[in-house]
Amino acid sequence: MLTKSSNLSIDSVIYDLEDSVATESKELARGLVADHIAADAMQRSVRGPKEIFKRLKQKMLKSVDNLDTIVVPKVQSTADLHFVADVIRHVAPQRVLFRPPMTESSQQTEEAPRSRLIHVIGLIESALGLANVLSICHAGQRLGLVGLGFAAEDFMANVGLSKLPDRREVLFARSAVVNACRAYNLPSIIDMVSVDVAHGTSLEE
């Protein structure tokens, strides 16, 4: 599957090493993905994805040279972003953390070669993460944060919400994430994933 992903004619590929990998297989999966990316297979492929994402938890790849974006699940405070940014600076000092336009020192990002930029997307999945979403976006401007994603299913489990047909139970949370990103000029907002694939109406909204 990793080899196949190098030649897919798609915009982006995401290596999800959290929910998509069984606990007993995580170490093996991390090693396989790290070796695959370090081998520069994506960069050699003409037909391959334009962007390479990795979703991580607990451990970082030893090398982020060929990554475009790191997706950080369960962001609950600015400390989570500081940790990721510190590791990136340690393992890849040649890379430049993304900074959104119109922020202090954003000119550094705008003038940096695009191949050296690295982006961070944080996932809001809990009540604590939502409560801290404004401070997360504010601090994230200097920590590579390009945007947030709202993980509705995990958020509902954390808060104890019941799923309604029109999904109004998460309307407040979705609105709060959008507002925070817009307030701090973060360009990317990823709305909740629709798991109701059996009914096309939910995907048409």
From TrEMBL:
One of its GO terms (biological process) is oxaloacetate metabolic process. GO terms for molecular function: catalytic activity; magnesium ion binding. Residues 1-198 form the HpcH/HpaI aldolase/citrate lyase domain. Its cofactor is Mg(2+). The keyword RNA-binding does not apply. Keywords: Magnesium, Metal-binding. The keyword Transferase does not apply. SUPFAM superfamilies: Phosphoenolpyruvate/pyruvate domain. This is HpcH/HpaI aldolase/citrate lyase domain-containing protein. It comes from Fusarium globosum.
